[in-house]
Amino acid sequence: MLIQAVNLTKRYKNGVTALRNVNLAVDRGEFVFLTGQSGAGKSTLIRLLFREEMPTSGAIFIDDRSIGKLSPKNRVILRRNTGVVFQDFRLLEKRTVYDNIAFAMKAVERPMREIRTLVPRAIARVGLQGRENDVVTQLSGGEQQRVAVARAIINDPFILFADEPTGDLDPETSADLMKLFEEINAGGTTIIMATHDVNIVNSMNKRVITMRKGEITSDSKGGWAL
User: Is the pTM of this model over 0.85?
Assistant: First the structure.
């Protein structure tokens, strides 16, 4: 099992309990949707899985290692092997397409020769050839999200987390982006994606986990969002 979450509970200082005793297991190579209404706990679960936040109680294991007990060195290794795509892109707004993607490699201290080789390949993979030197604010929302995807996959992660990646995109752009995610998954990357877009979920025939009020209410392979 690649990812295991055991009895996860997340309670914030304001008294809100975002997750209640959540248990989850994800195999290597799966494509998993987390669905549910706003406030269901999808984004909180995503943040816990890639260690942006820590649970109040419970544990998360990736490759049988508790991510809550990792040494600083192993936390760097975890970040190198996981990618994250956000709804709001989180790009460096005054920097170019190339610089934004290269930044993810520099952050994990990849050699410059690898950066010069791999960044153009990632740009081509997401269909942005010729836009390398454009400042990202010159791009459309869909193009900016493609930059975010390229940045997330540039270090060849074995897990890709995506939190509402199509939330601000039109249906056609969303569909194109989902084709890209399918290609990434077909290459062996495990994907866990939070979304409230039932049309996307129902068109993909993937595993669907539905959440409500911080709990998992259903889990089906080839499922449909309700």
Answer: yes
